[in-house]
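Fold it.
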Amino acid sequence: MVRGLINEYPANLAVYEIHVSDAYESTTQWDENRWSFYYIAPGYIPRFVVDGLNDAPDDCNTGPNNPCDSTLYEGRLNVQQAVPTDVTVSLTGYAVGAQTYDIVAHVCIEAGGAAKTMRLYMVDLLDYWPSASMPPYYDYYRNTLRQGAVPVDVALTPGACTNVWNTFTFDATSWNNQANIKIMAWLQEPLSVFPAHVHQATTMPWPFPVGDADGDGFLDNVDNCPRDYNPTQVDSDFDGHGDECDLCPGYDDHLDADGDGVPDGCDVCWGDDATGDSDGDGVCDDLDECWGDDATGDSDGDGVCDDLDACWGDDATGDSDGDGICDDLDECEGDDATGDSDGDGVCDDLDQCWGDDASGDSDGDNWCNDLDCDDANPNIWDFDDCGVCGGDNSTCGLFDDDFETGDTSGWDATVGS
């Protein structure tokens, strides 16, 4: 039914076919999204939507119990064609690479029309596909969706126009059947669900006509700035790119020896980098060890840029405890700024006997072990006048042999103090 209308109204009917849950639906979910948009109630497919408003399951089969109304869709088409619209849309396209084309939709509101916002859809179609999958139904599949661009909302004012650009790269299936490639665009109310009135639609078959996408009076194939309005076509440096779109004024935009997309005349990192020197440090981004913050890189190789390195020249981790001493030089990294000044292996801020002892105060009597005459008894820490640890001076008159013990049992007399 629909294929007959396509043949009968080639200039007036813009229609495309989506596939859902089969091997031919697009990989970008475009088909699924459109099916969800128009899905009104449980039913079956195929379905047919006229002008974004009328949904009609395609039940046109043969048989006495299911007659085919051959005028159903044509009647609806004629009704919608009679509805006036102030929206216009036209398409042009030109090659920008292998199998890649820029497609331009030229969208306008006629003078005297009403300002409105429209949602522009643009899709790549392949007619008579799939053909080999289900012979002999070659004519059954018409204008099948291959890929769709992201819809764009366009604010339109009466008497004014705007251009919307999309880039399509045609896959091998389409490229091997170029004669059947079509681009379709339509302007629909910016709604998220059906119904949404389509105000205008158009289809551009292959081969794509050469147009004037920027509306400056010069066709795209001779326009030195096909995307930018430049009716003067001034090209001061004679590089074939007009001043309005010249990437590198004063130099030849075509010369790009390192292939980074930046013409040689404006390439601050000629020969090695596409993005130049984005942090302005004099080092090209692809060679800049500290891209974004430092011109000198990481001279000590510690993984910290020189301008951020608290211990530039000697340490990768900086000064993690903030004591002013780099971690690799800090004897007490993590807790002390002064280190271990007495060399006893205990950091100064943790050293109970700072300046004289490594082992601290074993018996907790507040006397450092090296000054405590008895490290095991908290009640004894000092020598008496006679040199006895914890003594009471009672042994001061003893002979030298018994001085330390105070044993007088072998003597007849004791000399007093």
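The longest helix spans residues 72-81.
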